[in-house]
Structures are given as C-alpha cells and as structure tokens.
Amino acid sequence: MGPSADYTEKIPNNVGLHEDRRLQRALESWQPNFLSWWESMGPSLPTQDVYLRTAVNVGREGWAHFGHVPMRDYRWGIFLAERDGDRRIGFGEHKGEPAWQKVPGEYRADLQRLIVIQGDTEPASVEQQRNLGATAPSLYDLRNLFQVNVEEGRHLWAMVYLLHAFFGREGREEAEQLLHRNSGSEESPRILGAFNEETPDWLSFFMFTYFTDRDGKYQLGTLKESGFDPLARTCEFMLKEEAHHMMVGTTGVDRVVERTVQLMIEHDTEDVTAHGGISLDVIQKYLNFHYSVSLDLFGGETSTNVAGYYTAGLKGRWMEDRRADDHRLTDGSAMVDALVDGRIGETEVPALTGLNTDLRRAYIADCQSGVNRWNKIIERAGLPQRLALPSIAFNRKVGAFAGIEATPDGEIVSAAEWERRKGAWLPTDVDKTHVRSLMRPVHERGKIAAWIAPPRNGINGKPFDYDYVHL
C-alpha cells in the first residue's frame, strides 16, 4: 500500500501539502484558473455525472476508486509514487550518488524545460478532444473519453506541483503559461506539433490514444529514471494512468477493424463506405498519419541535448535498469537512422547522441504489437488484407528525413510525385468527410453506432449497457 491520498484537503494529495502553507496557498490560487480553463477548454458536452475512477492511493492495490461524479467536482490531486529512501541515480556522470530531493542548481533550467514540455502536452490533448463527446458512439466510449480527459487534467496537476514546489517564481509563471497556450492557436500554440493537430472524429481519437499517448508512455518512462527523485516518482504514478489511455486506443481500433471486417464479409466488398463503415484503406491512412506525427515527437535521430540530459542524470533510457552496459555510454557507439547517399539507411554515432533513436525504436516495436493484434482480427475473419506501419521516413517533419518525401514503403520520391500520390497514403478531405458523417452520437444505454463493434468487457466489471454517463 502506498501513502493514501488526503481527500479532506482542498487539493487531494499524498505529499503532505498541509505542512507547507506557502506552497498550499500558491496551488490553491492556481486551482480556480485550472477550473475555469476546464470549463472553457475542457469537454464541451454538458453532463450530470460520469462513472469515473479517482486515485485513492499510489500502492499496487486499490489505487482506483470508481463512482459517478459530476466532472467539475472531480478531485484532481497530486500523487507521487512511494519514496525509496535508498534510491540512487542509475546512469550518467552521477551514477551511484543518492537521488536528488531538491533541484541541483546547475540543472535547474534543463529540468524546468523538461517538466514544462511534458506538462504542456497534458492540457493540449484535452483541448484537442474537447468536442468529441457530442459524437460518441456509445455511453461506454463517452465515459472512456471523459476518463482520459480527467486523467490528462491530473497529469497537468502533477507537473504544476513540481513547478510550484521546486522552481520558485519562474515555476509559478510557467504553471500559468500552461493554461494560456491552446492547441491549434495562432498566437500561442502548444509547444509540440502533434498537439496542435485537430482530433475531429473518433477514429482520430483512437489513433491518437494509441500512437500519441504511447509516445507519452516512453517519454514518461525516461523521466521515471530521473536523478531528480520527485520527478521520477511523479512519472511512475502517471504511467499507471497512461496505460488506460492506450487501452482505449488499442481496443478502440480493434473494434473499428472488427466492425469493418464484419461489413466486408456481409456485403462481399472491400469498400464498406456505402454500408456505413470505415474501409481498411482509410483506417490505414489514419494510422499512417498518427504514427508519423508521433515519430516526430521523439525529436531528431541524434541530439546533443538528450546526450546532455543523460550525462547529467536528468533523463534516462527506457528500462534503464535492464540494460547490460555501463550506464554512462561515454565510449560506446550506436547506429541511427539516416539518409545515406540519398537513401534511407543507418549511420554510426556516439551512443550518447543516438539516445532519441534508441527510444524511438522501443516505441516502434511497441506500435508494431498493436498492428499485429489488428491484423489477427482480419486474419481470423479469413481476409487477405493487412495493416502496416509505414516507413520511418514517411511524412516526417523533424529529424533526418524532414527534407525528403518518402512513400509508406520507404521509396524516396520527388515533391511533385508526393503531392500527386499523397491522397493514397494520408486521409483526404473525402475520407475525413466520410468518417465525420458517421459520427452521429449514440447516447442510449446498451446501444452503439454502426461503424464500430461493442467492447468485449465493460468498465470495472460493469456490463456494456451500464449507465456510465448521465447526460
């Protein structure tokens, strides 16, 4: 059992907030700003209450409490995983030293930047998903959307706590800015590109929660290794919540594919558009788009910044403790993806500068497991079609392949040819219009839209036809 959350507090927490009055006051004055952001930029569908889970403690058991809650009254809190008093830094030049409980002065700016960037993605995705409630395919899906939204809100709280608790006035100013930037805004957009893209329909939402939240899992996984212990413990707890978002994406795409396959067999056609479904080739185009913009979130193939973060002990590798090397990497080398003589190939670089590629490769392998799963659904139905991840060079705007155009098969083509053929690889206006035309809300208990299959299981042992949301 981890330390329990104190729900008598204005801000539920397990960090002993009441012992630091100044910090408590600062966060209590940020809270109304957060709530007004939630009212204006959060879910736009009015609801009475929603069957949500709330964290009660950070231990393995029973950290989630389920019940119907009016969303505005959701208890957003601050939770850090249990502290290990003997924890040591696991990598970089400080390897073996005790983990830091305060911010080391020389790394202050870098740590603040890492926390701000992570913090910025959380409210951004709530903003991107703001209008999806109006077109939910079932009450079960509507509930999952709102659960993702409140947890992204909690992840914002997690980062705001760190900024307020450890970074003084600058931290408080950055916490304000997190509510002032808005996804897709001309004047003050969100920091990372993928978080300014729109999420106008549920197929986009499932792809986003599968691919883009999975990027979040890997970024949190590297910060969970941080020598700055409060950040490590914050991210460890966030990863538990992130797992739910990816489940929503994985099973969401499962169910779209399953329904498409049923329609293909029923009507003996690949193009199920006329029958109210989403064809596999359109699903593939959405997959191509979300996967490629998510690859960009990992940054360039080589990065001296990330090398610096690693050496300083700020940000480790995915599963750092399972790596069989010296955890310093000062002498090693690594192969990274690159353009070599005008072709997609690899080049050797010092291991430290290749860390973005190391992380991206773990992510790609993970993404492939979802594609394999979706293909099994098609295969079991006895159909020959398969979904696939596109080439690592396809549709890239960041890194080694930003300056070229490549097909999903990894063939380099001219800009003119790319323009001519991109409608075969990325969603066209016609595709998007068709998908949007299917997005008619189904808000009756136990009913579901015709373009998606019902889930195998409900939430927390409840049936599919449970009243998950009271509108």
Defining key terms:
7 strands, mainly alpha, Ribonucleotide Reductase, subunit A, 471 residues, two-stranded antiparallel sheet, 11 helices, three-stranded antiparallel β-sheet, 45% helix, 7% strand, single chain
Structure write-up:
It is a single chain. Helix content is 45%, strand content 7%. The mean pLDDT is 95. The protein has helices at 21-41, 108-128, 139-166, 168-180, 202-223, 229-267, 280-296, 304-312, 355-380, 415-421, 429-438; strands spanning 49-55, 64-69, 333-340, 343-350, 405-406, 412-413, 469-470. By secondary structure, it is mostly helical. The chain is globular. It has one domain (17-470): Ribonucleotide Reductase, subunit A. The protein contains eleven helices and seven strands. Helix 3 runs antiparallel to helix 6 (229-267). The strands form three sheets. A three-stranded antiparallel sheet has the order 2-1-7.
Secondary-structure topology with pairs:
Layout: H1 21-41, E1 49-55, E2 64-69, H2 108-128, H3 139-166, H4 168-180, H5 202-223, H6 229-267, H7 280-296, H8 304-312, E3 333-340, E4 343-350, H9 355-380, E5 405-406, E6 412-413, H10 415-421, H11 429-438, E7 469-470
Antiparallel strand pairs: 1-2, 1-7, 3-4, 5-6
Helix pairs in contact: 1-3, 1-4, 2-3, 2-4, 3-4, 3-6, 5-6, 5-7, 5-9, 6-9
Protein name: Benzoyl-CoA 2,3-epoxidase subunit BoxB
InterPro entries: Aromatic_CoA_ox/epox, Benzoyl_CoA_Oase_BoxB, Ferritin-like_SF, RNR-like
EC number: 1.14.13.208
> pLDDT below 50 for ≥5 consecutive residues: which ranges?
none
The end-to-end distance, rounded to whole angstroms, is 36 Å
Round the Cα radius of gyration to an integer and report it: 23 Å
Q: What is the mean predicted local confidence, pLDDT?
A: 95
EC number: 1.14.13.208
InterPro entries: Aromatic_CoA_ox/epox, Benzoyl_CoA_Oase_BoxB, Ferritin-like_SF, RNR-like
GO molecular function, one term: oxidoreductase activity
Keywords: Oxidoreductase
